[in-house]
């Protein structure tokens, strides 16, 4: 819940990335790219722009990878740029952000990679730069496979990832629904929750879509169902005689793009599901029956043709550190430098001394006696004895 999920439309991605990083104040983060060449290019350009960034991919020597990982673990560099296909094995709890420079191939990988952020429980961000051209490129690569069954599965997974990127509903609900876990309320910590799209009563549209899936005997995918709803005249419609269905042409008021958004929202909300083993055909779920009978209504988001960039964070969603005054932010930086110095002396990663979350709490509460210092999350008797005097002295003597 401490990870804020955000998707923005990909437009001049390197500049978008740099604008994002400028607000990170030397925080640690991981940037995922699709290819080794892109990893090298992004890392080089970030270094040229003044960021502490290193490349990390399977094409580098073991020594180079270990050197980059050690620097990252010890907070000597800010950013690791890596390929999504290479397992980094990073065990660093104070990763404050994860950026996907390209759309991943599937939600499983995306979920695992974003989960490397905020393991210390403090606020973290997961940013995805989404471009339709990227997903088309991945789809083209998948289409080249000779294994038809595997190709069908991988394309379904990519479609689910695109559905997440284009979602108009709570992103955390989309993620958990994919793994068959239900979140009964919106998370309040993703871009669609913080900057909600305009909504409308989608009950009639939903009933049309669900009825069409039923009339087509739950044997077809999204595109064909939309073709029926819009009254398309093509060979596939004629082949199955679907121009004779009662739902043929009842959805002409919406474009194909709008219907795609509506159907995907019905999937995300649990009214429909896609059968991955059967060409991603749409199936009704038990949840849909009340909606079909008119016993309940559903509110849907008006489709966005492009992914909207979230508005600036509201007060209630700012991190604890961002809510405090500039002097507290300066104290946090002071304590972080002290942590780094002590870590270098002990030859250990800084997070083993105190987590970011602990330093943030120290910056807010400013404990200068042992009892109050022990009240800080992450502080026990051992750490009090080892580091308490140094940190309490830094807090007491700090002059903003």
- The number of E-state strands comes to 10
Based on the structure, what is the oligomeric state of the protein chains? single chain
Beta strand %: 5-15%
Query: What structural class should be given to the helix and strand makeup?
Result: alpha/beta
Instruction: Return the string of H and E elements.
Output: EHEHEHEEHEHHHHEHHHHEEHEHHHHH
Termini, distance in Å? 33 Å
Principal-axis shape: elongated
| Unreliable residue runs | 305-310, 312-321
Order of neighbouring strands in the sheet with most strands: 1-6-5-2-4-3
Please count the helical segments.
18
**Strand count, sense and closure of the main sheet?**
6 strands, parallel
């Amino acid at each position: 819940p401490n990870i804020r999920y955000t998707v923005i439309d990909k437009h001049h991605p390197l500049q978008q990335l740099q604008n994002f990083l400028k607000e990170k104040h030397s925080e640690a983060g991981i940037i995922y790219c699709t290819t080794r060449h892109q990893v090298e290019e992004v890392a080089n350009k970030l270094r040229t722009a003044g960021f502490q960034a290193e490349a990390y991919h399977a094409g580098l020597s073991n020594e180079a990878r270990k050197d980059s990982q050690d620097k990252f673990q010890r907070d000597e560099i800010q950013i690791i740029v890596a390929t999504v296909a290479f397992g980094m094995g990073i065990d660093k709890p104070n990763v404050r952000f994860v950026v996907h420079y390209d759309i991943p191939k599937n939600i499983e990988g995306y979920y695992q990679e974003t989960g490397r952020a905020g393991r210390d429980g403090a606020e973290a961000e997961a940013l995805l730069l989404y471009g339709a051209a990227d997903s088309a490129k991945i789809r083209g690569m998948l289409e080249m496979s000779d294994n038809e069954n595997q190709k069908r599965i991988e394309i379904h997974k990519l479609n689910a990832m695109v559905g997440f990127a284009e979602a108009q509903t709570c992103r955390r609900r989309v993620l958990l629904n994919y793994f068959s876990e239900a979140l009964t309320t919106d998370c309040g910590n993703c871009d669609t929750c913080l900057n909600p799209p305009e909504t409308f009563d989608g009950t009639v549209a939903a009933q049309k879509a669900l009825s069409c899936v039923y009339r087509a005997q739950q044997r077809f995918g999204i595109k064909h169902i939309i073709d029926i709803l819009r009254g398309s005249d093509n060979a596939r419609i004629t082949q199955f005689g679907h121009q004779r269905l009662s739902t043929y042409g009842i959805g002409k008021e919406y474009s194909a793009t709008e219907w795609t958004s509506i159907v995907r929202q019905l999937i995300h909300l649990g009214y429909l599901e896609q059968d991955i083993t059967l060409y991603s055909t749409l199936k009704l779920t038990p949840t849909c029956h009340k909606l079909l009978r008119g016993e309940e209504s559903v509110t849907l988001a008006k489709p966005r043709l492009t992914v909207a960039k979230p508005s600036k964070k509201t007060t209630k969603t700012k991190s604890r550190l961002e809510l405090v005054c500039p002097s507290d932010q300066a104290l946090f930086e002071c304590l972080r430098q002290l942590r780094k110095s002590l870590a270098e002396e002990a030859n250990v990663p800084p997070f083993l001394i105190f987590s970011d979350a602990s330093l943030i709490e120290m910056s807010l509460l400013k404990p200068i006696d042992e009892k109050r210092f022990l009240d800080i999350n992450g502080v026990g008797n051992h750490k009090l004895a080892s580091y308490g005097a140094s940190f309490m002295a830094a807090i007491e003597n700090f002059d903003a």
